[in-house]
């Protein structure tokens, strides 16, 4: 047996920061009131994290790249028949990764245009009509339950692999390393400092755009006519 470098630090930070951001978004929306400002901040953090992970999926280290673990139906069938050999995300787990990124992304984007019909308005609310914002708000609320189900399925799969198949998926996401048979896999390669900076800059640019900084402020209301006593 030998120990390889599997998950790079950016992937691990993305994973755990996304957990914290999602928990924070859920808690603050349940508290409501002034906590909705923090709900928006957590939502923007989710936007930035997802943007970073998508870019890192092309520029990051070998096991973090989409081309490494996103496979077609043939690879999925081979995995289900027990003929798949590899480390990192397996072909079936890749579908879970893509579903989580897609659904979290949909939830975050709809939240940018949503409102709570009381006092909260998403940072990009001025870009859409009131009716369309209401539609986004409905989608935003409904998607929450799909996310709960998908996250529960994800956690259940991790527990199954850890306790039934004796393949601890959680530990490598903490330490970055994994023990594998000699010659079974190589260390992760690529994803250096330049790739990290490019991914970070693009993610920050996405957060800046999503925060509404590019949206023109609404025009000032017309001053009320003054009664001059004439």
UniProtKB/TrEMBL annotation:
GO biological process, one term: respiratory electron transport chain
GO CC annotation: plasma membrane
Membrane-spanning segments: 12-36, 42-59, 92-114, 145-164, 192-211
Compartment list: Cell membrane
InterPro entries listed in its UniProt record: Cyt_b561_bac/Ni-Hgenase, Di-haem_cyt_TM, Hydrogenase_cytochrome
One GO MF term attached to the UniProt entry: electron transfer activity
UniProt keyword terms in alphabetical order: Cell membrane, Membrane, Transmembrane, Transmembrane helix
Pfam families named in the record: Ni_hydr_CYTB
Positions of the Cytochrome b561 bacterial/Ni-hydrogenase domain: 7-176
Membrane topology category: Multi-pass membrane protein
Protein name: Cytochrome b561
